[in-house]
Design brief:
Strand content: 5-15%
Order of helices and strands: HHHHHEEHEEEHH
Number of helices: 8
Distance between the termini: 81 Å
Structural class: alpha+beta
Helix content: 55-70%
Mean pLDDT: 77
Low-confidence stretches: 19-23
Oligomer: single chain
Shape: flat
């Protein structure tokens, strides 16, 4: 009785659904499997390509300084990748060991004194030295803290990296209050951005590591590094803090 009561249009629709269901399921599975394989192999391929490019670049720089008699490809039918990188690591380690000694420090001071007398080379070397000391020195002032700043318009908040405060000369020219150096990187290329001084009271300091903030910026928000159970609570707390700071700023401006 159920078959006789079914209308012809419904029977046709049911037949079409039965015909299309297997092909749609196969294509959906194919797409899911392909995307899953891409997600698994994509990061590995990009990481391997970057490492291979760096190793080849270092080998190309170091190989001309190695005598042909000491190159592995002189005795083997193929070159061994990474030889230049190993030699560069050993050379830099020995250089650091020698620099830590009295004789090494004396030679470094003589070299720096010679470079400081060159008008064009002096500012370049001094700037590069300060940057490398800030990035790789344990006592440097590299980016160690992440915060939110109201930029580029009221109600819009951006991630910034905090470093040290301004020098005494700059602090004397800035408005009253504690200021801090901020770097606002661009997405998806964090090597470019904006640098400015801002009052610490206008910042919202975050309990977020620099690595997680970089992941968030490079992915343009598609990858959320904080995926634990308290993520929504943290976001709600940050939103409430930002809203309270905005209200206080408006009330102080009215007064």
């Amino acid at each position: 009785m159920a078959d006789t009561d079914q209308k012809p249009g419904e029977e046709l629709a049911a037949d079409i659904e039965q015909v299309l269901a297997p092909s749609t399921g196969v294509m959906a599975r194919f797409r899911n499997y392909f995307l899953t394989g891409l997600v698994v192999t994509g990061p590995l391929a990009v990481t391997a390509w970057l490492i291979w490019s760096v190793v080849n670049w270092v080998d190309g720089v170091v190989r001309p300084f190695i005598p042909p008699a000491y190159r592995p490809e002189s005795y083997l039918p193929w070159p061994i990748p990474g030889t230049g990188l190993i030699i560069a690591v050993i050379a830099l380690t020995l250089l650091g060991f020698l620099t830590a000694n009295l004789v090494g420090r004396t030679l470094v001071e003589l070299g720096e004194g010679l470079l400081s007398r060159m008008p064009i080379v002096r500012p370049i070397y001094k700037t590069m030295k300060q940057i490398f000391e800030a990035l790789f020195s344990k006592s440097g002032s590299s980016f160690r803290q992440v915060a939110l700043v109201e930029f580029p318009a009221p109600g819009m908040w951006s991630l910034v990296f905090l470093s040290q405060g301004p020098s005494e000369d700059l602090a004397a020219k800035l408005p009253q209050g504690e200021h801090v150096s901020c770097f606002l990187p661009c997405t998806p290329n964090p090597t470019t951005g904006f640098f400015f001084y801002v009052k610490r009271a206008d910042l919202i300091e975050l309990d977020m590591s620099v690595e997680n903030a970089m992941t968030l910026l490079i992915s343009a928000g598609m990858v959320q590094p904080d995926k634990d159970k308290d993520a929504q609570k943290k976001l709600a707390t940050l939103a409430a803090t930002a809203k309270a700071a905005q209200v206080m700023r408006k009330s102080s401006a009215v007064e």
